[in-house]
Every structure is written in C-alpha cells, then in structure tokens.
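Title: Comparing notes on inverse folding

I've been comparing how different people in this forum approach sequence design from structure. To keep things fair, I'm posting one structure and asking everyone to reply with a full sequence. Here's the target:
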C-alpha cells in the first residue's frame, strides 16, 4: 500500500467493534474491497470470526491485555485475557509402512483410462476407494490415568508415488526435498501411512496483534509441545501405531514394515529410540486446523475467562462471541459438531435473553 493509501487507512477504524460512551457495542466497522462500511446494531453484536479472527477483532476493538493493546496505541476498553489459551490438535505422521503386495494406491501406476472405465462401468477399482480408508481412536494412557481415547489416527492407503516428497513437503510446510530424502529408495513401492493427532493436549499458545493495522495478520504461536506431557503421549501413540502395523495379523500378512530410513535432521539418533521419535515428531509437526479456546468462557470467579456463561464479553455490553474460540478446553475429537452446537446454543440463549428483555419492558 502506498503512502497516500496508508495515511487514509490510519484515519479509519478498520475491522473492529464500535462502542458508545457506556461501553455498549453499537455496531462494527470493516473494510471490504478497499471500502469502509460501518453498519449499526440495534440490540447487540455477535462476533463469529473463528479462533484467530475473533480474538484479532476483539483486540483491535480495545478488548484484551491492556499493556499489549497500548503498545500499539489502542485504548483499552476491557482488560481481558484475549488471545491466551490457544489450543489445537497437533498432527504428525506414522510411516510410511512398506507392503509386499499391490494393495495401496499409487497414482503413477493406478490412475489410468482403465481405472476410469472400471469406475464408470462397475464403481470398482482404485477410483472407487477413498483416500481416507479408516479412522481409529486409541488411548495412550498409563495407569492411573483414565483409559479413554486421546489419539485420533487416519489410515491413508497411499503408496510412494513420484511426487510423494513434493506433496508432503507442501502439506507440512517443509524445506523442499525433505520427504523425498526420507523415502529415497522406495519410490514406486506399495505402502500405507497414518496421520495422527493428540486429542487432549496440555500445551497452550497465543494470538497477538502484529500492529494496529487491521489488514496485518495477527501473530499466531501454537506453542506445540511446550508441555512435556504432549510429547510423551505422541511418542506413545507413534509406537502404538507402529506396533499395529508390524505386530498384528491384519498387516503382518503384507509384511508391513516401517521405512528404515532416518528422517532428515534426525540422523544422529538411533532408529526407533524414543529420542529418534521425539526428533521425528518435532520435525514433522502440523496443524489439524482445530484451532480453538482463544477467547474462552468461564465462571464469574475465573480471572482468565473472556466471556461469561452466556457468551457475553466481560466488561462491555451488547457483545457476544460464538465460535470455536469460546471453548475453555479443546474437545477430544474433531470440532465440526461442537462448533455447530455452540452456534445452536448461542442462538437459543440470544432468543431467550431478548424475549425476557422485551417481556420485562412490556413490549
């Protein structure tokens, strides 16, 4: 943005909630296609911008850690722990596991006109299979911990195709050539791999402003593995999945074996040692896109809660949040259904609150 455009931007509100002198939310201001809009709200504002977007907008609006806001020249309206407590299901891979039969999908081999004909005629063949063949929930708990599942694994029956390295470097944001080096010598081999994540992480991250400019993306620190228990559970989970492939009858008949190569950067560790697995997991770390809990609700005596039990932002009036950011703790599985539930419950509470309000006023 040029100098003239920047000076104009500084003179407008940006993406934020607007308040009157009594700290009541009266509307929002946002930028779209270079234009600024400021719709007003007759009753209240509902913020549903997600676990990154909602904290970002709250902070731009003056709701958050006062010292952080004031460092960017933003006047504090309510001093709250916005952007703290960020959680996600940290993701990694187990495998690939080499197989001795043509039971996986290798695009270079299996994607053909013949495969298309099989599917169109009979709905059979490689194109009739889903990339995600199975999902399993496992427990890595050790006594006396509760023995409930805390590990979610997805089986991908995918062999080592020619672009395997480039594909997974892109997915995990790795340096070019990393996965290609890892699978060196196994291109064209049938294989399976598993994506797995930790359902009950103890690590907590943060979201902070990069600047007071609403067009600047916030600083997101997921802080994976900052709690040592998370790494312990992921190592247990990885070893459990390796055992599933190498020790159970279902996979032993295919001589399923973990690839014997070192992961790049972990060559100084002994293969299959806990130290090697930790190195592997720290190098091959990704997000499940289950970001949540960054503007949590809580009881009146919880000093870290941003919202009350009816999703109203503390310290102001007429403003609620309804998305994954409101969770105090991440759910032990995918977030789609819980977030739908949050929306349904929020709608019910809003209707209930305003029905009681109008009854009280005699409308």
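Reply #1:
Here's my take.
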């Amino acid at each position: 943005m040029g100098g003239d455009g920047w000076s104009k931007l500084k003179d407008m509100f940006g993406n934020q909630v607007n308040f009157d002198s009594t700290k009541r939310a009266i509307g929002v201001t946002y930028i779209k296609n270079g234009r600024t809009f400021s719709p007003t709200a007759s009753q209240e504002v509902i913020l549903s911008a997600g676990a990154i977007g909602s904290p970002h907008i709250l902070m731009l609006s003056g709701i958050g850690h006062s010292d952080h806001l004031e460092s960017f020249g933003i006047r504090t309206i309510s001093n709250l722990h916005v952007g703290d407590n960020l959680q996600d299901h940290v993701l990694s891979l187990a495998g690939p596991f080499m197989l001795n039969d043509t039971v996986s999908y290798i695009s270079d081999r299996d994607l053909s006109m013949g495969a298309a004909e099989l599917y169109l005629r009979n709905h059979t063949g490689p194109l009739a299979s889903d990339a995600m063949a199975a999902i399993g929930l496992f427990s890595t708990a050790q006594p006396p911990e509760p023995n409930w599942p805390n590990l979610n694994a997805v089986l991908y029956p995918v062999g080592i195709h020619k672009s395997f390295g480039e594909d997974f470097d892109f997915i995990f944001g790795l340096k070019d050539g990393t996965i290609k080096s890892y699978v060196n010598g196994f291109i064209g081999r049938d294989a399976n791999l598993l994506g797995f994540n930790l359902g009950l992480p103890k690590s907590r991250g943060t979201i902070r402003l990069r600047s007071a400019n609403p067009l600047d993306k916030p600083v997101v620190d997921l802080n994976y593995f900052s709690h040592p228990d998370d790494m312990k559970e992921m190592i247990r989970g990885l070893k459990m999945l390796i055992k599933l492939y190498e020790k159970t009858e279902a996979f032993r008949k295919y001589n399923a074996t973990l690839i014997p190569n070192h992961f790049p950067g972990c060559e100084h560790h002994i293969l299959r040692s806990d130290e090697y697995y930790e190195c592997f997991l720290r190098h091959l770390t990704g997000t499940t896109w289950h970001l949540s809990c960054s503007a949590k609700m809580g009881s009146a005596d919880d000093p870290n809660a941003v919202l009350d039990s009816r999703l109203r932002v503390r310290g102001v009036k007429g403003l609620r949040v309804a998305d994954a950011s409101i969770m105090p703790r991440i759910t032990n599985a995918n977030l789609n259904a819980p977030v739908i539930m949050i929306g349904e419950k929020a709608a019910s509470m809003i209707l209930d609150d305003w029905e009681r309000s109008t009854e009280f006023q005699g409308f």
